[in-house]
């Protein structure tokens, strides 16, 4: 596997402090994701218990979510004690370095609970509010996708890129659904109207993996309402660095209101259609 940090990294460290910082953040994110992925894969109990619930009884938080986040934050804080953190399981630390880690310790919790393979560890690093490094590790796929802003996107160290844009009628879309009944009903109505206009729609269960699948050419596009920063931070950067266009409502960045990712030409057709269909509200 090619070195994801690139062979010229030592020279970059000497010549460009920003490049050196990005190299360091990528190296740490890759190692933290590898360790957390191994913990989750190898430590998953056969009778996986549920520690608590989130917004509804369907949306579970497992003991392994908490263990994964603790592993990641502990590893990163030991090496960069002045950084900030934002994590799905409650960690929120301001930090003083200008770097903040945005962490989803298990993206695709329900898949993980049911022993389905589409779950991932998602780690992004922001510098002064801009996402500059993203890593999505999917251990049961045997894949890790990563990106550094301005350097392209990679899967297991090999460069990736989005699929050529098909006509909308031939586009394979990924999406996801919220856990609250009211939101699910609204999202189902969007799917009902959209489905006859596209090739098909997939619901994989992990936003981070869906965004990486756009980056790797496995989906033509992806959209979803209701994502949190930790759901989308790493995957959006990876999709962008693979040449895809991302955003929310017209003129807005990807956010909890709406996240869309597709090749630029397809994005130009899909985003206004989703806006017209009201994919951004419940």
UniProtKB/TrEMBL annotation:
<feature type="binding site">
    <location>
        <position position="104"/>
    </location>
    <ligand>
        <name>Mg(2+)</name>
    </ligand>
</feature>
<keyword id="KW-0479">Metal-binding</keyword>
<comment type="function">
    <text>Catalyzes the dephosphorylation of histidinol-phosphate to histidinol, the direct precursor of histidine.</text>
</comment>
<dbReference type="GO" id="GO:0008934">
    <property type="term" value="F:inositol monophosphate 1-phosphatase activity"/>
</dbReference>
<feature type="binding site">
    <location>
        <position position="88"/>
    </location>
    <ligand>
        <name>Mg(2+)</name>
    </ligand>
</feature>
<keyword id="KW-0460">Magnesium</keyword>
<dbReference type="InterPro" id="IPR020583">
    <property type="entry name" value="Inositol_monoP_metal-BS"/>
</dbReference>
<dbReference type="GO" id="GO:0006020">
    <property type="term" value="P:inositol metabolic process"/>
</dbReference>
<comment type="similarity">
    <text>Belongs to the inositol monophosphatase superfamily.</text>
</comment>
<dbReference type="GO" id="GO:0046872">
    <property type="term" value="F:metal ion binding"/>
</dbReference>
<keyword id="KW-0378">Hydrolase</keyword>
<dbReference type="InterPro" id="IPR033942">
    <property type="entry name" value="IMPase"/>
</dbReference>
<dbReference type="InterPro" id="IPR000760">
    <property type="entry name" value="Inositol_monophosphatase-like"/>
</dbReference>
<dbReference type="GO" id="GO:0004401">
    <property type="term" value="F:histidinol-phosphatase activity"/>
</dbReference>
<protein>
    <recommendedName>
        <fullName>Inositol-1-monophosphatase</fullName>
        <ecNumber>3.1.3.25</ecNumber>
    </recommendedName>
</protein>
<dbReference type="Pfam" id="PF00459">
    <property type="entry name" value="Inositol_P"/>
</dbReference>
<dbReference type="InterPro" id="IPR020550">
    <property type="entry name" value="Inositol_monophosphatase_CS"/>
</dbReference>
<dbReference type="GO" id="GO:0007165">
    <property type="term" value="P:signal transduction"/>
</dbReference>
<dbReference type="GO" id="GO:0046854">
    <property type="term" value="P:phosphatidylinositol phosphate biosynthetic process"/>
</dbReference>
<comment type="pathway">
    <text>Amino-acid biosynthesis; L-histidine biosynthesis; L-histidine from 5-phospho-alpha-D-ribose 1-diphosphate: step 8/9.</text>
</comment>
<feature type="binding site">
    <location>
        <position position="107"/>
    </location>
    <ligand>
        <name>Mg(2+)</name>
    </ligand>
</feature>
<feature type="binding site">
    <location>
        <position position="231"/>
    </location>
    <ligand>
        <name>Mg(2+)</name>
    </ligand>
</feature>
């Amino acid at each position: 596997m090619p070195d994801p940090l690139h062979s010229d990294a030592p020279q970059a460290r000497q010549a460009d402090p920003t490049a050196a910082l990005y190299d360091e953040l990528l190296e740490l994110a890759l190692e933290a994701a590898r360790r957390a992925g191994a913990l989750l894969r190898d430590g998953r109990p056969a009778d996986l218990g549920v520690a608590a619930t989130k917004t509804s009884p369907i949306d579970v938080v497992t003991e392994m979510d908490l263990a994964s986040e603790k592993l990641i934050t502990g590893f990163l804080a030991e090496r960069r004690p002045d950084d900030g953190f934002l994590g799905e399981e409650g960690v929120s630390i301001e930090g003083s370095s200008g770097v903040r880690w945005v962490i989803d310790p298990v993206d695709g919790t329900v898949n993980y609970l049911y022993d389905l393979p589409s779950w991932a560890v998602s780690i992004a690093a922001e510098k002064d509010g801009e996402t500059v490094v993203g890593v999505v590790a999917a251990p049961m796929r045997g894949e890790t996708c990563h990106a550094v802003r301005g350097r392209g996107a990679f899967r297991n160290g090999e460069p990736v890129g989005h699929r050529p844009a098909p006509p909308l009628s031939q586009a394979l879309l990924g999406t996801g659904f919220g856990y609250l009944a009211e939101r699910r009903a609204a999202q189902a109505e969007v799917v009902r109207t959209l489905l006859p206009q596209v090739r098909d729609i997939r619901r994989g269960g992990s936003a981070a993996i869906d965004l990486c699948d756009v980056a790797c050419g496995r989906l033509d596009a992806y959209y979803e309402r209701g994502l949190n920063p930790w759901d989308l931070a790493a995957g959006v950067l990876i999709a962008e660095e693979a040449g895809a266009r991302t955003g929310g409502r017209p003129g807005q960045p990807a956010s909890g209101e709406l996240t869309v990712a597709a090749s630029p030409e397809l994005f130009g057709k899909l985003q206004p259609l989703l806006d017209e269909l009201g994919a951004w509200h419940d």
